[in-house]
Amino acid sequence: MVRGRNAGERAGRAVYNLAVAGGFVFMVLPILLVLWLSLFSNEILTFPPDGYSLRWYQGLLGQQQFIAGFLTSLQVAVLATVLGLLVSVPASLALTRLEFRGRQAILQLLLAPLVVPAIVIGTSLYVLFVEIEIATDLPAVGSVVGLSLAHVLITIPWCVRLVTANLIGVNPAIEEAAASLGARPATVVFKVTLPLIWPGIVAAGLFGFVTSFGNLEISLFLIAPGQTTLPIAILQYLAWKIDPTIAAVSAMQILVIAAGLLITDRFVSLSRVV
Amino acid sequence: MSMTMNRRQFGIGLGAATGLGLSGIRPASAAGQVIVGTWGGDYQNLLDQNIAQPILKPMGIEVVYDTGNDVPRKTKLLAERRLPRGSIDIAALTASGAYEMYKAGALQELDTKKLANIGHMLPKLKTPYSVPHIYTGRVILYNPDKIKTKPTSYADLWKPEYAGKVGVIDIQYQTTIESAALVNGGSMSDYEPGKAKLLELKKQGVKIYPTNEAMAQALKNEEVWICIMWKARGVMWQNAGIPVEIADPKEGIVLYISEMVMAKNAKNKDNAYAYLNALMDTVPQFQFARAMGYNPTVDNVTLPKEISERINFPADVQAKFMLQDQEYLAKNDAQLREWWDKVFKA
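Structure tokens for the assembled complex are given below, as produced in the milestone run.
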């Protein structure tokens, strides 16, 4: 029974509840479908399934490329997230707390990787690395450092946007009060500002990590020989086989990310983050 | 605010995380390597199990894979032409891709004296810049429960009784236009008549699927009864339980050839030659035929009858094997793609 003062309000609330429930189902359904598909016994994914089996999970153990890809993706995403935060947090502080010429231009520049297609970023960076190698004779092409730096680029827009939004929400009077009581600028930042925007930093880290972890296009061009990322391994597997192994890989990925979120929740309540 | 991690702990966490990331940095490639740019998945696994481990490893050569699609691989070969040493030594490409890279000056012309097995290469497949690794032919796949009369020509796809049950694959635009051209007065050097023919198929309600895998599902679901596909894929799909039979079109069998080429600026040329030679060894050639349904590119592999019957073509059909006109495709691919996207798919 939907509560409300009159029929119109009750109808409005019912529509609202329906929209919320619909949105929730829309978001969760793909995850549930992936988990379901991973248990199908038939090699070609068709409905209804012939039966159910865990054999695709057992088969994962023999697929070294998925394990290696997962570890590389994890390394690159962690490095990109950390470096992205180290760039984005000071940049966001400067953009929200200082007035200077070109502020808007710098903000747009930092957000630019979000509007440029990732395949264009990947190709451009690859060509840049080739030019660097030609100019310096340093092995810039096909290095983990190059790949990680490229991933930093795609984490920055998320980090800057989220940290900036949080900084705007902080009452400047609190920082001014700390400064007027004798705290030096660095002390204000570390003792007052950063603790206040902590949920924003965690959210930025989460978004940055997920963006990097799932990126395919940049990695395709910049991955070092001998290494692979999980999205590349999945794409390559699909070129030859269409069995539910991919669903099993995705299910494992969902479980790992869910575990990561639960661990994060122990440090910072996720309800405050997102 | 709920915050149980203090700044010091956060700093330690950041440092540890960065360390974890940096631990993935590898030193530059060592001696005794060959870097092979290839498709991954089962193809790379078979390369590793049948070439790298049993043949190259005992020679002291470590095979390192640069796994990815052929488009980034071609981009790398082109972009790295100016580097004294490229990042890959060997690249797996389609016949068209290999020709394109050769014309662009990115490939090493091969010294056949360094390829002991080259004498066994099928003459029709030989090129001066590549070692053809595996091949198959383009055929018609059909569902025998729905189509009782075995197709004999690509023209059978236009039969009114199959309207709405014919499927084509988006990424196979080139070969689809080519097949249509062959039944409408075109040739391997003139795909233009295929366009009008395909528009007829469009009027009959042809279904377009984005990838080979999507087509496999459509065949399994019986949304599609008939399509054009590579024979090796047909065999793989039969093995996966998809209800399809294979028919050879009377227009002739156009070959799909997967080749391996050496970058002009390969760092490890001797090892690359060793790898290319090993590709033609009988054991790996046999294993690719057994596992993937592709035909050996050399004449000294004897396949068991049960494999040969499934993947090979009768002698009279082999006599009509056709190769794509790479020069024509290099000039026309862009306009064919544009027509496919803007007219056929519109």
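The CA atoms of residues 10 and 336 of chain B lie 56 Å apart. The beta strands of chain B are 33-38, 62-67, 90-94, 130-142, 166-169, 207-209, 226-230, 245-247, 255-262, 295-296. Further analysis is deferred to the final report.
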